[in-house]
Amino acid sequence: MMFNKLVLAACLLLGSAVVYAETMKIGLNYPQTGRYKDQGLQQRLGAFLAVDEINRAGGVMGQPLELVIRNSRGEPDQGATNTAELIDSEGVQMVFGGVSSAVAIASGKAAQARNRIYFGTLTYSNATTGSEGHSHMFREPYNAWMTAKALSQYLNRHHADQNYFYITADYTWGWSVEESVRKFSNTEDTEAHQGVKTPFPRALITDFRQALEQAAESDAEVLMLVLFGDDMVRALNAAYEMGLTKRMQVVVPNLTLGMARQVGPTIMEGVVGAAPWVWNLPYENNYPRGKEFVEAFSNRYELRPSSSAASAYSIIYQYKDAVERAGTTNTRNVIRSLEGHRYSFLKDEQHWRAFDHQNVQTVYVVKVKPRDTIMADPFSSDYFDIIDSLSGDQAAQTLEEWQARRLAAGKPVSL
């Protein structure tokens, strides 16, 4: 009798071990705390929805997905440490995440050293797939160059010959965005179009007020807030209190639903920005899979999804499809499966460009709607009017432009 019980116990333990071994782990490295925590939470919500849907449909090649998460705190060193731990200790097959580009770049290098793919979920610096790009980094959203080309197309039509004032976060993303917007909006003359850098990641409200005071003293008609997350929220609130939103056109180059909700509809009204995706896009352009995602997300969380939620959700499905096309989780084979792949998922056609692993996709210019329209949505989140767009092929750097940046950084001209 005792022998039979031991055999039964061993079988149960073995069964548990088999189930665990057959789970395909993927790692999400996102900020649960810090200035970008709201954007991090949206990634988590989108990721869990994708994992649950995929597992209900049978997993990836018959294996259930398991999502392992870590808090990057928005700090590059922590992001890299988390990535190493996810791969070395947890055995994940790929890692994705990042809100700060500095975090994504550091994390991507840690993944490359361990022969794993890193998908950048919310990283807009040109460097991510440019000067710091490598074979194991894939970026799902657009980059600063693409943002600037689309946004400047609109600004050059409606705000040509006006003076700009730039308030920019002093790190790789901020530098990339300001440089790119200046280039394409013809505002590279820093005497006519002044600007100031604010500390990152620990800017104080006094830093933003001092920067805004300089903007107020200028003759600028366009206030370019190259800030993100809580930094943008605090700066825009201060600009409203100082009356600057009434006398200047406020532009937030990378605008997300979470940031808009944090500021609120009254202050946000009329703000212009760019986005790779907004939740009303699938309804306006009749993208069925995009509508399915919005409905599933909204019903599950009683919240509209932001672009960062859509990015995390898309990445998991893209990884699943790449593994199934390759027939393996072998990193080199999955990379080859991704390179050049074209697909339509939550919007129109996108593709993973082979030479830099940048996701090439349509870029949208948006303007925040009036308060009454925003609040009429069941979730009080109908923030964005799509006022312009630019195709991904028109927006993205050419091979020659990308190679020129690589050479200037002393990097090889291929991944």
From TrEMBL:
Residues 23-369 form the Leucine-binding protein domain. Residues 1-21 form the signal peptide. Keywords: Signal. It comes from the Bacteria. InterPro entries: BCAA_transport, Leu-bd, Peripla_BP_I. Belongs to the leucine-binding protein family. This is Branched-chain amino acid ABC transporter substrate-binding protein. It comes from Marinobacter halophilus.
